[in-house]
UniProtKB/TrEMBL annotation:
Keywords: Repeat. Pfam families: DYW_deaminase (PF14432), E_motif (PF20431), Eplus_motif (PF20430), PPR (PF01535), PPR_2 (PF13041). PPR repeats lie at residues 160-194, 265-299, 402-436. The lineage of its organism: Eukaryota, Viridiplantae, Streptophyta, Embryophyta, Tracheophyta. GO terms for molecular function: RNA binding; zinc ion binding. This is DYW domain-containing protein. Belongs to the PPR family. PCMP-H subfamily. It comes from the Eukaryota. The keyword Ribosomal protein does not apply. It comes from Carya illinoinensis (Pecan). Residues 480-521 form the DYW domain. NCBIfam families: PPR. GO terms for biological process: RNA modification.
Length: 540
């Protein structure tokens, strides 16, 4: 199709002149080819909409095959007006009751951010089929309306594997990972009625396990994939690599990667690179990237993002600069704002604040919250107050409710002993109604996920957890550990500040794991939700 697309794209103006009354089949093929080549603008001379306009100019009437393809090309809010014009054409030609077109309208309006019209298109269907139900559920999730999506799912007269997968995937996209796993378990109970998870279902479930750091759950899902006789191809293989890496089992991720053989695509390579970067194996990540190139695999923007992240975690400034240069000069990949954010983070962590500033000023796009946040974090780390204040101002302009920026600046002031300024920042937060989102850490013990908040006392074993935490802190102090109390903004003495530090959610999660596991039982993996990082400790 790619070859055909290029050939059609380059010749179809001549085709129009030679055959001005060509039938709709050819025009539909042209529209479809342009839609499928939409991610490769270098092969296009016209847009799908312009092809449709030329079709009408030559007097060819569209049919029920024309519009589903055409509607796929409208997938952003700026294209909503064009989508509505095509909707009017659908009504004009009496095709509004075609089920495929109705479902395509739901998808188009949801992709363009107009849930009201998507719902109206659904409500106008006299007897919606499974495809229509699945589309409106997916549209509702895109708007973040989880409860409404769940209500629609419950109201479905029948469900297929796609319906269940749509719900599970929606939960994962909205950050409801535990609900996604719970729904998957329900799906298994109704499996006797003929509903079986497919490859995409399992990929989504593995993603939920990875986001939760639920290694035992992930292992069980892996075993279930084998039990169902599913082939671990590129999709499931990539998902397994990602899950094991995020759950702290990088060796299992490597094993999956090595056993995928020749079916690895660029996403599988990128997933492995990301896992190595996540675990701080920067040198190994760069070696794997070289191996990837030698195997003839062309990297994409995601691949370079993984490599740059490895440089960030490894403090490899010169290497990061070199890969950032290579992506555009050698591979003709235009850096995205995420790549610039990585480079700012790399410079900031290394204390190269001036270089970070120069890069930000040279960006071809406006810096976003993540870029300014990286500069804020780096300048805070190295005590550059002036830069911190500038970065904070930009972050607040872009995201007025971002509590993390206020807290970072407050901590910088506290670290320098500027308590009045630190309190002023906190007072501004309070006056603006901005509250710090409490950190949440989760840990998996015996296949069960346990979550902890800062100073949490809701766990049934709270007394034992705090007793274990006291023992851990006592042993750490015996080994010379001294908590950094300079950034604790509280009217407390030194002992009180140390206590405040010890109540962090991560420490409570670690204490619970030490309480419930025996020495030498393996590696403890937990996830600090507030930072989206996975931390590993040997249990010995």
């Amino acid at each position: 199709m790619r070859v055909c697309t290029k050939l059609i794209s380059s010749t179809h103006p001549t085709l129009h002149l030679a055959y001005p009354t060509v039938e709709s089949f050819i025009w539909n093929t042209l529209i479809r080819a342009h839609v499928q080549a939409g991610s490769r603008p270098e092969v296009l001379t016209h847009t799908p909409l312009s092809v449709f306009c030329r079709m009408r100019f030559h007097g060819v009437e569209p049919d029920f095959h024309t519009f589903p393809f055409l509607l796929q090309s409208f997938n952003s809010p700026i294209q909503l007006h064009s989508g509505r014009l095509i909707h009017a054409q659908i009504i004009l030609f009496g095709l509004a009751n075609d089920p495929f077109i109705q479902t395509s309208l739901i998808n188009m309006y949801s992709s363009c951010g107009d849930l009201a019209f998507a719902r109206q298109a659904f409500d106008e269907i006299s007897q919606p089929d499974l495809s229509s139900w699945n589309s409106i559920i997916n549209a509702t999730f895109k708007m973040g309306l989880i409860c409404i999506a769940k209500k629609l799912f419950d109201d479905m007269p029948a469900r297929n594997a796609i319906s269940w997968t749509c719900m599970i995937n929606g939960y994962v996209r909205c950050g409801y990972y535990k609900e996604a796993l719970a729904l998957f378990r329900v799906m298994q109970t109704v499996g006797v009625d003929g509903v079986r998870p497919n490859e995409f279902t399992m990929s989504t479930v593995l993603s939920a396990c990875g986001r939760l750091g639920a290694l035992e759950h992930g292992k069980w899902v892996h075993a279930y994939i084998g039990k169902c006789g599913m082939e671990v191809g590129v999709v499931l293989g990539t998902s397994l690599i990602d899950m094991y890496a995020k759950c702290g089992s990088i060796e299992r991720a490597k094993w999956i990667f090595d056993n995928m053989g020749f079916c690895k695509d660029v996403m599988a390579w990128s997933a492995m690179l990301s896992g190595l970067a996540m675990h701080g194996h920067a040198e190994e990540c760069l070696e794997l990237f070289t191996k990837m190139i030698n195997h003839g695999m062309r990297p994409n923007a995601v691949t370079f993002l993984c490599v740059l992240c490895a440089c960030v975690h490894g403090g490899l400034v010169s290497e990061g600069k070199e890969y950032f240069r290579r992506m555009s000069e050698e591979f003709d990949i235009t850096p995205l704002i995420q790549h610039y954010g990585c480079m700012v983070d790399l410079y900031g962590r290394a204390g190269l604040i001036e270089e970070a500033w120069v890069l930000i000023k040279s960006m071809p796009m406006e810096p976003d919250v993540l870029v300014w946040g990286a500069l804020l974090s780096g300048s805070r780390m190295h005590g550059s107050i002036e830069t911190c204040e500038i970065a904070l101002k930009r972050v607040i302009e872009l995201d007025p409710t971002n509590s993390g920026a206020y807290v970072l600046l407050s901590n910088v002031y506290a670290k320098m002993g500027r308590w009045a300024d630190a309190r002023h920042v906190r007072n501004v937060m309070e006056a603006r109604g901005i509250k710090k989102v409490p950190g949440c850490s989760s840990v998996e013990v015996g296949g069960v996920l346990h979550e902890f908040l800062v100073g949490d006392d809701s766990h049934p074993e709270t007394r034992e957890i705090y007793k274990m935490l006291d023992e851990i802190m006592s042993r750490l102090r015996m080994e010379g550990y001294v908590g950094n109390t300079k950034e604790v903004l509280l009217d407390l003495d030194e002992e009180g500040r140390e206590l405040a530090l010890s109540l962090h959610s991560e420490k409570l999660a670690i204490a619970y794991c030490f309480l419930k596991t025996s020495p030498g039982s393996g590696w403890l993996t937990f996830m600090a939700i507030s930072f989206k990082e996975f931390v590993l400790f040997p249990l010995s």
